[in-house]
Design goal:
Blueprint lengths: L5 H7 L8 H33 L6 H27 L8 H28 L16
Helix pairs in contact: 2-3, 3-4
């Protein structure tokens, strides 16, 4: 049977025996970061497609603007999450700062979601049609 020293117990728990809020914030930041990377990758792929197609795409200017806006907001959210991860939540004076940062992240994520819904509504014309190599004539 393994025994846990009181020092080890206190490291995983915060003040008063409650779970450390920093551990929660770190896990939340990591999960949020993985989702941000996935969305950033999708937006980069969409932007690459648009730049390859060029002005032939019916909504080229609008799509490039929306995708660029989404990418910029995602970078801002990433920066806020990094800053939020450095805030020591065990200090009561940092609670207001952490709350403001968390609210800003939430607002920006909402805006990113709306922007990406609009991007999806315009669609990526041609991306769902198969590409034929060679001649299609019989």
């Amino acid at each position: 049977m393994t025994t846990v020293s009181p020092t080890e117990q206190n490291e995983s728990k915060g003040v008063g025996g409650f779970l450390d809020a920093n551990v929660y914030a770190t896990k939340k930041s990591i999960a949020q970061g993985m989702l941000d990377v996935a969305l950033l990758t999708a937006n980069a792929s969409q932007l690459k497609y648009l730049l390859q197609v060029g002005h032939k795409h019916e909504f080229y200017t609008i799509m490039v603007s929306l995708i660029a806006t989404s990418i910029i907001l995602q970078i801002l959210v990433g920066a806020f999450i990094v800053i939020l991860g450095t805030v020591n939540l065990n200090r009561e004076k940092n609670h207001v700062r952490a709350n403001v940062l968390n609210n800003m992240v939430t607002i920006f994520i909402f805006i990113i979601t709306v922007v990406n819904i609009v991007i999806s509504s315009f669609g990526m014309k041609g991306s769902d049609t198969p590409a034929f190599i060679g001649s299609t004539a019989a």
